[in-house]
Amino acid sequence: MSLTNTPTADQIKRLPKALLHDHLDGGLRAQTIIEIADRIGYSKLPTDDAKELAKWFEDSCNSGSLVRYLETFAHTVAVMQTKEGIVQVARECVIDLARDGVVYAEVRGAPELSTEQGLSIEQVVDATLEGYRQGMAEAAVEGNKIRVESLLCGMRQSNRSMEAAKAVVKYRDQGVVGFDIAGPEDGFPPSNQLEEFEYLRKENAHFTIHAGEAFGLPSIWQAVQICGGERLGHGVRIIDDIDFNKSKAKLGRLSSYIKDRRIALELCPTSNLQTGVAKTYSEHPIDKLLSLKFQVTLNTDNRLMSNTSMSNEMQQCVNAFNWKFEDLQLVTINAMESSFISYEEKIDLIEKVIKPTYTKISAE
Q1: Which of 285, 271, 310, 311 is nearest to 61 (CA)?
Q2: 230 is catalytic
Q3: Which residue range is the domain that position 212 belongs to?
Q4: Does the residue 51 lie in any domain?
Q5: pLDDT in tens, 69-125
Q6: For the CA atoms of 346, 352, 355, 356, what is the dihedral angle to 10 degrees?
Q7: Is there a contact between 26 and 73 (Cβ–Cβ < 8 Å)?
Q8: What CATH number does residue 278 fall under?
Q9: CB count, 10 Å around CB of 293?
Q10: Exposure winner among 88, 123, 208, 345, fewest CB in 10 A?
């Protein structure tokens, strides 16, 4: 069967991809940061050379510290304070993903971070959605069909998450499909936003929760059992609840629950290496979790900070774990199944785009 073959780099590039965990303010083009900074008079960039700036972001994020990693966003957020800037960033995000073979993406951003110069939450959301629409239209002209939906984040260290939650409900039929909380985990447990999650549940709205990245099992437990998260942003630390000391891995109560309920793990291996989850790609738990039949999805997190793409993440999994076409297809289908669009729309993409294209490319 051709799906058991090992894909080449060219084939990986052409495979259809589904992406659930990608931050808008973490995926800017370095040249765009420089252009917008010049336009708005922002003078704090470490360099005005695009290649050097891209390398600065990656190097700064290789510290092994989530706190230091998050500090780099000061520059990207600074150039996303005007409607023009937000539209440009969102439009280019969609085009870049489409050129990489992504056919479906949920891109997340915290609208409150772009209100420093007077924009309202609604104006930020409107500008973001406008950028996505422009990007999807331009991608189609290039021959790359992509669907991008928006996730709105509240920041766990601030008190404005309810504004984002209410915007999710207001815009849910206009390109926004769900809610998330982002920011530092340690000291800011998911239960701090319990009011927001209860509001969203009452409104039948979807949400994922950043948990189990820099902080361990208690964060995951709260996200699922107290807050009702449908997916886990990262969730990689669930590996701490699995005993590999015997011939057969033994799952703990929490990991069994996560697996049995098919709660998706939005895993971002390259990003996790930068924040100290593992030292090398081959040591990352993604392969073990996929082998144990968890609802594993593969993601980019922050394409600029990690100098990555979905094609790169797939290539790294092929290199480190000898993944075949069938493994890449599985995590792609997992992502579509766990997306926040309707069941019919998920099945349509899986059956009409993902499966046929994987079959065709793997048979080459």
Answers
A1: 271
A2: no
A3: 17-362
A4: yes
A5: 778 899 999 999 999 999 999 999 999 999 999 999 999 999 999 999 999 999 999
A6: -170
A7: yes
A8: 3.20.20.140
A9: 11
A10: 345
| pLDDT digit string, tens, across residues 151-160 | 999 998 888 9
Assess if residue 142 is contained within a domain: yes
Alpha carbons 125 and 164: distance in angstroms, whole number: 9
> In this structure, are residues 343 and 329 in contact, taking their beta carbons and an 8 Å threshold?
no
Assigned domain for 4 exists = no
- CA dist 3 and 361 (Å) reads 9
CA distance 237 to 268: 12
Tell me which of 149, 213, 266, 313 is the catalytic residue: 213
Q: Domain tally for the chain?
A: 1
Beta carbons of 122 and 168 less than 8 angstroms apart: no
Q: Domain for residue 353, yes or no?
A: yes
